[in-house]
Specification:
CATH topology of one domain: Aminopeptidase
Shape: globular
CATH architecture of one domain: 3-Layer(aba) Sandwich
């Protein structure tokens, strides 16, 4: 599958791109995972948005935030892939590329995430380590994880 990757600041997103990323986030987090939560949390404007397009359809996305917005460390969140590309390896490419983009934007540093518990091994494969007890967020078990900078 040929994916076109791009990373943009919030103010660089076109209305069409912003609509596509909100649509994908809502499709997966609200509808598929049946979570009622405030997705538009006021943090989007502080970050960068890493987008993966296949044939002009957004199929992969993450939000990159600087230290101090969500956590004391920089963070990667709203990690999402469209159901059409799951099990194709796109999620691994998305996360690997997102880490590299974050390092390029803000230099190499520790990264903190709030991960759904069932994805613990996935994030551990990139070097993240669990740093919290399990907690409930939007009806789903989560843990905090950190990719330490050495």
């Amino acid at each position: 599958m040929d994916i076109r990757w791009e990373c943009k600041r919030f103010d660089e997103l076109t209305p069409t791109e912003l609509y596509a990323l909100m649509q994908l986030r809502n499709e997966v987090f609200v509808v598929e995972q049946n979570c009622v939560f405030q997705d538009a949390d006021g943090k989007d404007k502080y970050g960068y948005h890493y987008l993966g397009w296949a044939n002009e359809q957004l199929v992969a996305y993450t939000r990159l935030l600087p230290a101090g917005v969500s956590y004391e460390y920089a963070s990667i969140g709203r990690v999402v892939t469209s159901i059409q590309v799951r099990s194709s390896g796109i999620g691994k490419i998305l996360m690997k590329n997102s880490i590299a983009e974050l390092f390029q934007i803000w230099d190499k540093q520790a990264i903190k995430i709030g991960a759904q518990l069932y994805l613990k091994k996935f994030y551990e494969s990139f070097g993240f380590r669990q740093t919290s007890e399990v907690y409930m967020e939007d009806g789903i078990e989560h843990i905090e994880m950190v990719l330490p900078y050495i």
